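ok so for the tutorial part 2 we go from a plain amino acid sequence to predicted structure tokens. step 1 is just haveing the sequence, like this:
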Amino acid sequence: MTRPRDSSTPDDPTALDVQLDHASIMTTDLDEAISFYVDLVGLSLRTVEDDPVREGRRRALLTDAQDRDVIELIEMEEMKHPSVPGRGGIHHLGFSLSPLARDADGLVLEIEKE
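step 2 — the prediction. this is what the tokens look like for a chain of 114 residues:
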């Protein structure tokens, strides 16, 4: 079993260096979501563009203080309809792994609930 590396296990060879890389979040109001992440969270807006994957939708990329893309906001206006369950939320989370973990064939990471 592997587990995330922390300060109590710095030399543990079974520990992985796993870090949150980015989040992709669906929203019904792109401009409002941009304002929240820029004005309240302190991220910077890198771009607003047509979504290259989802035809007819816009997306925004937000960066942190190190100029890394950390949040992708995807506009999904059709989710405003009350019959659509969920209406927005996290689309996916991206994690960065240590080179050892990236190179491991068939790696399975178990996430334990506390």
